[in-house]
Amino acid sequence: MIKKTTTSFVAGAVMALTGQAALADAHSGEITVAYFLEWPMPLLAAKASGAYEEALGKKINWVSFETGTAMSAAMASGDVQISISQGVPPFVVAASGGQDIQVVDVAVSYSDNDNCVVKADLEIDKDSASELAGKKVAVPLGTAAHYGFLRQMDHFGVSLDSLQIVDMAPPEGAAALSQGAVDFACGYGGGLTRMKEYGNVLLTGDEKEELGILVFDVTSVPASYAAENGEELAKFLKVSAEANAQWAADPSDEMLAQIAEQSGMDLEAARSAIATFKFPTVEDQLSERWLGGNAATFMKGVAEVFVAAGSIDSALDSYEGAVNTAPLTAAKEMMDSGS
């Protein structure tokens, strides 16, 4: 089931690539940016203030999505020019299928805000995880949660063939868990928060990181958009970086209130969620740890896990071409020069 669902998505995304040819002309006076609700990030304060429109000098249509796979499809069709906080796994699925998209910054790292939750009455934890064999699980396929699920099942020695895997976005997965329709569910954001009301996580964020299960999102764009609008993209990334820097220097209640409102969350829920997020500086993002080397290597590892699980047919030889640091480097130069 996983393979059928994910590969059919990739095929549809690749078929839609023809829509990118008209991208520049169709959106010369405005662009469309994809983002997630219930995903509180400093840049949402900049969204609220109109800082992006001011920097770019054009209208921005902000459209919320529930999964990174949907973001890939929207970029493939030419409907979206910039996707904020797309998970690495959905990016890898699309790139592996032939979609010409690029990572242009690291949006957020969040090992504790993406996980799998087991229904409380099963009383299964990391020491008894083998008992998950034969159970039914809700997973948003092709996402960061899907990758984490695959890695955790491999770690615990639970055969994927023994599981009944249902493709569900996190909010639906949480509802299914609450109703007892599934035995465990994997997700992120508000969906994960609600899942935790009905069960327990198998591994903490720190425990996952020790196993090499990193969880981070990127800002991604169609390669054609980056090639044709490099300066505009650099200005966009500069606004995001400045919002992150402002939050790091002074995580005020006033800024949090803006972030919460834009996220569709109440203040305390946003405070709790953003406390689990890390926002790397531009310098960190351009370093070897992230976009300077490790990101492409990590993407290759994600792709190989998906191939082994039968989720995608094949991996690219290298994902270095899917990482474009030029716009972020230009953004850093703008910041350093005060322009």
Distance between the termini: 51 Å
Overall SS class = alpha/beta
**Sheet with the most strands?**
5 strands, mixed
Which ranges are low-confidence, i.e. pLDDT below 50, for 5 or more consecutive residues?
Answer: 1-27
Evaluate the radius of gyration. 19 Å
Summary keywords:
339 residues; alpha/beta; globular; 5-stranded mixed sheet
Would you kindly provide a written description of the structure presented here, covering whatever features stand out?
The protein has helices at 2-15, 23-26, 43-49, 51-56, 68-76, 88-96, 144-156, 170-178, 189-195, 205-210, 223-228, 230-249, 253-263, 267-274, 282-285, 294-308, 326-337; strands at 30-36, 59-65, 82-87, 101-109, 114-119, 136-139, 164-167, 184-188, 199-201, 216-222. With 339 residues, it is of the alpha/beta class. The strands form two sheets. Strands 2-1-3-10-4 form a five-stranded mixed β-sheet. β6, α7 and β7 (164-167) form a beta-alpha-beta unit. The longest helix has 20 residues, at 230-249. It is globular, with a radius of gyration of 19 Å. The model is unreliable at 1-27 (pLDDT under 50).
